[in-house]
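User: Structure tokens for both sequences below?

Assistant:
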Amino acid sequence: MKFWRRYLALGVICYLLFVITQIPANNVYYFTKDMLKEQSVTLFGVQGSLWQGSASAATYKDMHFKQINWEIHPLALLTANISATIQFKQQENSVHATVSRSFFGKTTVENGRIKADASQLIKLMNIPAIKLNGEFNLNLPLLELTDNNVEYIKGRLVWNNAESIFPQKMELGDVFADMSTSSDGVIQVKLGDAGGPLEMNANLLLTPEGKYDLKGLFSARQGRNSSLGRSLGFMGQYKDGKVEFNKAGELSEFGFLVK
């Protein structure tokens, strides 16, 4: 008898989840828009259902978003998770990812594809100390966070047409960062290039304790006397046409970059 009761309870739960997710999205927004407004969020053109819906546009503070789409995965609730696939655009930027939040505080991002204009991203992150141009493309198969701390990451970040504008104008070409995580929680980042002005072969280690260790070789393909080559000379001494750079320390050292 207990066996059938469990299946009956599971069936009732699944049915209730189905009913809830079929609620029209505009009805949900009608009852929650005042709460969202307190968070500076406004939606426009809401369509579909709570389960699978869209909004033609949205604003958050002074930022404008468009083509917002979502699909909630209700069965994730059976494993104590809230999960949804989201997609939206913001100016030249776009995001597509499946985001899950555990009832125990763990956030997971899967199959993430993010495109961002470098100058807009720096402005959004409120980093006044540097100015960049180009386009970031992030392919993120898996990211796991707990209390905003990265526990695991696997992905590739490509910076196309990379260019530094301030403190000095430098064209770098296309550069990339391949990210992985070892069993002890250390994030390993392989830094390289695609044959542009900057030649880079480096490795960056980031520990759970907030320490970093960067080792690599850097050079300018146009020679050490080029503008980029002279700038690289400030990183260290040239040896066999390349600058060897080794530095380790605390990530907190870079807090001055963020206003």
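Moving on to the next sequence.
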Amino acid sequence: MVDTAVSSKKATRRVQLELPQRSMDRLLKLMDITEASTYAEVMKNALRMYEAIIDEVEDGKEIMIKEKDGNIVPFHIFVS
């Protein structure tokens, strides 16, 4: 009998990054703020958010931010 159950363990790939100090500082700050236990956790969350934002913008939507005074303004994340 052949077991056709799909393994719950997903294949992973190792990625090695060289980051400038400013980027490393950002990574450490995000780890602290989000209480992430690993660099990988921060990076996976960042990739999910980045993908979601790009999907919305490609769909013609705008990302908006509500300021402390209640004013809603566009968030210009992709401005070069």
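User: Anything stand out in the second?

Assistant: DSSP finds two helices and two strands in the chain.
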